[in-house]
Amino acid sequence: MGFTANDIKELNEKIQYQSAFIDKLRDEVGKVIVGQHYMLDRLLIGLLTNGHILLEGVPGLAKTLTIKSLAQAVHAKFSRIQFTPDLLPADVIGTMIYNQQKNEFIVRKGPIFANFVLADEINRSPAKVQSALLEAMQERQVTIGEQTFKLDQPFLVLATQNPLEQEGTYPLPEAQQDRFLMKVVVGYPSKTEEQQILRQNIQGEKMPVVKQVVSTQEVIQARDIVREVYMDEKIENYILDIVFATRSPEKYKLEKMKLLIAYGGSPRASINLGLASKAHAFLNKRGYVIPEDVRSICKDVLRHRVGLTYEAEAENIKTEDVVDDILKVIPVP
Questions:
Q1: Is the same domain home to 215 and 234?
Q2: What's the rounded Cα separation, in Å, for the pair 242 and 250?
Q3: Of 202, 220, 238, which closes a domain?
Q4: What is the bridge-based pairing of β-strands 141-144 and 147-150?
Q5: Residue 234: its pLDDT value, please?
Q6: Which residues pair with 98 in a beta bridge?
Q7: Which domain holds residue 27?
Q8: Which whole number is the average pLDDT over 62-90?
């Protein structure tokens, strides 16, 4: 890389200046959303790395409201698709309709044509609909009839899953889950936060309006700067060790894990761990990645990429426990 201390100092100053809009975004969304800083940070990482996010949490944790508020603060087009068992691919991407006056077929675009697409309860719809959404996520384009349309940037899919009701759901196949940069588990607010939420909602005060504080253009520029964040080779090796330990745990003195892990993270896991670590450093106004960046987003990036065996499920072991054990044994650079 040939980076000198001076280069890193310059990069650091540049990133401190360029990441100033993050505080504005947090403050603006904070007018409406109480707490949920963890979820908001993960959404910002998705926005900065051009990655999609899968959110898992019980209903009523302000997932939709947070995403909507973030879209307003960036002045981006927001659309919400409620996934149901009778949804069709055309309901997501759009369809050709016949125009009688003109005697021709015209394209009617679906809700996927937005910057922030909230796919609510994605596991409620059959595979056909999920694959239509995932093509748009992967290729960032949509084909209707014989025409192909590029999707506007930024394009971010935020899918939610309800972990409670599993009857009548269609779980996302592993290959589809792998398309998401992170799977974020959204927790309950703390008691003081919930008290604030309670007061806000029962006093009948008018909800503050979220104003635009940053343009979509600035977000797209910030993405290029995130990629410039310096990552030392030691950090690269740390990321590779973590991902390789999910594939061959016995090589990292984790023999007992061999029976718990059905399959490890794909190369996408390494790429996304690297990208998300850079974005985490950017959020913390740093021009270089430190091991703490990797550790703090590790569970979110690997949670849906490491498969567990029946033995692990029988012992009630979760992916997070496996990642914790891996992080304990791999030396921090």
A1: no
A2: 13
A3: 220
A4: antiparallel
A5: 93
A6: 105
A7: 20-220
A8: 87
Write out the DSSP string of 185-250: E--PPPHHHHHHHHHHHHTTPPPPPPPP-S-HHHHHHHHHHHHHSB--HHHHHHHHHHHHHHH-GG
Rounded to two decimals, what is the model's pTM? 0.87
Write phi, then psi, for 10 (nearest 5 degrees).
-65, -45
Question: How is residue 243 written in tokens?
Answer: 């991902």
In a domain, 244, yes or no: yes
Provide CB contacts within 8 A for 147, sequence distance 6+. Answer: 107
CA distance 235 to 252: 17
User: 193-196 long-range CB contacts below 8 Å, 24 or more apart?
Assistant: 193/34, 193/35, 196/34
Q: How confident is the model at residue 121 (pLDDT cuts 50, 70, 90)?
A: confident
**Residue closest to 67 by CA, chosen among 135, 150, 149, 154:** 154
Shared domain check, 145 and 167: yes
Say if residue 4 is exposed, middle or buried (CB neighbours under 10 Å; 0-12, 13-18, 19+). Answer: exposed
Q: Are strands 307-308 and 261-263 parallel, antiparallel or unpaired?
A: antiparallel
185 in Cβ contact with 58 (< 8 Å): no
Position 256 pLDDT exceeds 80: yes
CB distance 263 to 312 below 8 Å = no
